[in-house]
Design brief:
The protein has about 650 residues and is α/β, with parallel strands linked by helices. It contains 9 helices and 36 strands. Strand 34 and strand 35 form a beta hairpin. Helix 4 packs parallel to helix 7 (about 425-440). The chain is globular, with a radius of gyration of 32 Å.
Length: about 650
């Protein structure tokens, strides 16, 4: 038997040597990436690598929270929680114990599937309400849902949190009569694409706390808001600190509740949308009017050409981005299938030779290689086609953007409301988006150096093509072995498999005996611990007979510094001067600034004295708009305690 095994190892070694790849290489590549088709949820990090697969929504969220954070400097976190197929289960609860909370986005991609909530979760320790998504610590958290449906069947409320994004996503509580509020937010809501929020008759679709000073909420969807939109809470004492809802598009089958304060503050601005009941005129943005329709509904329409053209431009850009995302999803799916066939072929030509035998393994490998070859060619054609398509689409959008920009030149923009559309910022953003379209499927060339940078898809195709060629070469080498060698190899493999089975049985028996022994050791250790505890307790009792107990000193808890108020920004040449009111007890301040409304790639400077209420930030980019926020820090015995962030202010640098 030893001689047969030695001969078999020699044959397989020759095969491996002919292909110039060690056996372990295929195994490692096959294990990398990809979702477990049987699991409900897959968690991926910022690089698209699989962190793990989970059957419970709570487990997936917990894994995402602890493993996906990637940027310590900017305190941001990226990644995805992916729904692999239609499923049902309970809701989730986010609890964070981080003292210095950081901005964290929980990004769900339902991948076209539906998750049904059979029961909610508590909002926090001892909470009475049940929610689908309950956030106990609401600080700097954002939930993003896309491409699917969250269906509510049994929950007292729906999504409870701070900021939520919906993109081509439906939250359906239309049959959940016990769900009084589908979405309850203390921050902003961003509903776009073809998203809907549906409440049961007489229930609320959206409840938004109006005292927050975050960015305005935006409803810009082709879908429907079924149910009332209500505003809750009291406006912040400092003037201007409140959240508005900007409606650019969507069908609203409901009313606005508590949308106007006694002091005249209006929390709704209408730039579009269709309503089953005519809203108040005071909600209309400047430059817009209500148009009665034949079906009894009311549409908000622009009254001037430039506003119409801006809306058309935004819709075309959104449609192009949606199309781009759909095409990327298609390519990702095709890449996944191609990678799976290559990995199957690699596995068949490694362990499969032992498990299936050479004939079956090579037949299966040949089938996978045939499918992979067709997929590879199809992918190359698809990517080439999309490269041309998005080059043309990008140029057309750039031309239209230039036309609309020209229309705005010379107009008195004070006569119009643009809502969340900042012309200068948005035109630059649109230009960036359309430029990015060219790079998704096509290679880019540096105009100065002439160096070419391949797209990520081109790089991955090269890698998969290389693996395909190697596995195809290996298959030809295995099939070229003489039939007599194949038969002898099969016999030797069968004998080896039997020996492996016998060895595994022996190992299982030894493991069982070891488990029983460990149980006995645990019992003895527990008994020893009980005896030690009794002796310790007796010694303490004897000691206490002659000594009075000494009360434990109490330590007063440290109070965190208050929120920074009165933030003001003064623009200079490539610099901004930041001033704010002094916070009692503060030992320093942290000033964070970014060109992004969401403080992506933000930078932070520290004011080292709690008495200093002014900071100049230099070396900024001219003509750029910066967003700034400040919070106080109190340092006690070497430990830092931070207060809440101030209001977010923006300024354009000279």
């Amino acid at each position: 038997m030893k001689s047969k095994r030695k001969w078999l190892a020699g044959i397989l070694s020759v095969v491996m040597t002919m292909t110039f790849i060690p056996t372990y290489a295929f195994a490692g590549e096959a294990a990398e990436g990809g979702a477990d088709a049987d699991a409900v949820w897959t968690v991926k990090n910022a690089d698209g690598k699989v962190v793990g697969n989970y059957n419970e929504m709570q487990d997936a969220v917990d894994a995402f929270k602890t493993t996906v954070k990637t940027d310590e400097e900017d305190n941001t976190s990226w990644g995805k929680i992916i729904l692999n197929h239609d499923a049902s289960g309970s809701g989730v609860l986010l609890e964070t114990e981080n003292e210095d909370s950081y901005w964290f986005q929980y990004d769900f991609d339902f991948n076209g599937h539906t998750y049904t909530i059979e029961e909610g979760t508590e909002t926090g320790p001892g909470g009475e309400e049940t929610y689908i998504v309950g956030i106990y610590d609401r600080t700097y958290k954002e939930w993003a849902f896309q491409n699917g449906t969250l269906k509510i069947e049994n929950s007292a409320a729906g999504i409870d949190g701070e900021s939520v994004q919906l993109n081509n996503f439906n939250v359906d509580a239309s049959n959940a009569t016990g769900c009084t509020e589908v979405m309850n937010l203390q921050g902003t809501v961003d509903i776009k694409g073809n998203s809907s929020v549906k409440a049961a008759p007489g229930k609320k679709a959206l409840v938004i706390d109006k005292y927050e000073y975050l960015n305005d909420s935006v409803i810009d969807t082709k879908g429907t808001i079924e149910g009332n939109i209500a505003f809750n809470g009291e406006k912040d004492a400092e003037e201007g600190y409140h959240t508005s809802v900007l409606i650019n598009n969507g069908t609203i089958n409901g009313k606005f509740e508590n949308a106007t304060d006694e002091d005249g503050t209006v929390y709704v601005k209408l730039y579009g949308g269709v309503f089953n009941e005519r809203p108040e005129d005071e909600y209309l943005a400047k430059g817009y009017a209500f148009e009665a329709r034949e079906d009894g509904r009311y549409a908000v329409v622009a009254t001037t050409p430039v506003l119409k053209h801006i809306k058309e431009l935004r819709e075309e850009v959104a449609e192009a981005n949606e199309s781009l995302n759909a095409d990327q999803n298609t390519v990702n799916k095709k890449m996944f299938e191609l990678r799976g066939n290559i990995e199957s072929a690699e596995s068949d030509l490694n362990d499969g030779i032992y498990d299936k035998g050479i004939d079956k393994a090579t037949a299966d490998a040949e089938k996978s290689i045939k499918e992979a070859k067709a997929q590879l060619e199809e992918l190359k054609q698809f990517i080439n086609q999309k490269e041309k398509e998005y080059n043309e689409k990008s140029q057309a959008l750039k031309d239209k953007c230039a036309t609309v920009r020209e229309e705005l030149n010379g107009l008195n923009t004070d006569e119009y409301d643009f809502g969340d559309f900042d012309p200068e910022y948005e035109f630059d953003s649109i230009s960036d988006d359309v430029d990015l379209m060219k790079t998704v499927f096509g290679n880019t060339v540096d105009e100065e150096t002439g160096d070419e940078t391949k797209s990520s898809y081109a790089v991955e195709l090269d890698e998969l093509s290389g693996r395909f060629e190697k596995v195809e070469s290996k298959l030809s080498k295995v099939r070229a072995l003489p039939d007599t060698l194949n038969k002898e190899t099969k016999d030797a493999l069968e004998e080896t498999k039997k020996e492996l089975e016998n060895t595994q049985n022996s190992l299982n028996k030894a493991n069982k005996e070891l488990e029983e022994l460990n149980k006995k050791v645990d019992t003895l250790q527990n008994s020893l611990k009980e005896t030690q505890d009794k002796l310790k307790k007796t010694e303490e009792q004897l000691k206490n007979q002659n000594n009075k107990p000494t009360p434990s000193p109490t330590v007063a808890p440290v109070k965190k510094p208050g929120q920074v108020k009165g933030l003001k920004l003064k623009a200079g040449k490539k610099k901004v001067t930041v001033t704010y009111k002094k916070v009692s007890g503060a030992t320093s301040y942290r000033v964070t600034y970014s060109t992004s409304k969401k403080f992506k790639k933000a930078k932070t400077v520290t004011v080292k004295s709690g008495k200093t209420v002014k900071k100049t930030i230099s070396k900024l980019k001219s003509k750029k708009t910066y967003y700034v926020k400040v919070r106080a820090v109190k340092k006690v015995k070497g430990k830092s305690y931070t207060g809440k962030w101030s209001a977010v202010k923006k300024v354009k640098v000279k």
